[in-house]
Amino acid sequence: MDTEAHHAERDHSRPPSSEGPAAQWSRFARMSAAALTGRLPGGGRTLAVLLCVLLLLSATAFVLQPFEIPSRSMEPGLRVGDRVLVNKVAYRFGAEPQRGDVVVFDGTGYFGGGDYVKRVVGVGGDHVVCCDSQGRIEVNGEAVDERGYLYPKDAPSRAPFDVTVPDGTLFLLGDHRSLSSDSRDRLGAPGGGMLPVGAVIGRAEWIAWPAGHWGGVHG
């Protein structure tokens, strides 16, 4: 009787699962998704929309970073309190900052602690001089037309300079030259006022706030 009872109990028990960990996890995920779908208004369609939103937010965080303009050094284009979107992948995959780009960078050890925003005036190998007979900055012997972004009535620079930008670095200036602390102020410091390309966080692309100042960043 004991043997028969033992066999009867064994015969009625649930056989052990032959699923591997991956199959068990897949089954659990399907059951969880089904349970969640049943609780959401709209069911599967709502769940699909939520997943798309989460994926979009994750991708946006990887590609874009908001940055609040802290000073008047980039007027008139960027004003104090503007929120700009910084393209963090602009200089990935072999791309390099170009003259005229407005970049956000980590100034630690070069411009002071914290993040800054300036315009690229010279890249590695450039010979940058201020100023020619008409008061314009020259890069590699050619005058730079800065009328599209330079602060009205500001001179390109009140301090003369004549520099050659080392490879892998940038020469940076603010658009409101009379109020900007930039590469000019650090010419005699270690590094000669140049910023390593690796310190660049990304390129400022778009003014997202305030609503009345929406638009692309002049580059």
Automatic annotation (TrEMBL):
Any one annotated GO CC term: plasma membrane
CDD domains membership: S26_SPase_I
Membrane-spanning intervals of the chain: 46-64
Keywords linked to the UniProt accession: Hydrolase, Membrane, Protease, Transmembrane, Transmembrane helix
Claim: Magnesium is one of the keywords in the record: no
EC supergroup of this enzyme: hydrolase
Keyword Protease: yes
Protein known as: Signal peptidase I
The species this protein was found in: Streptomyces sulfonofaciens
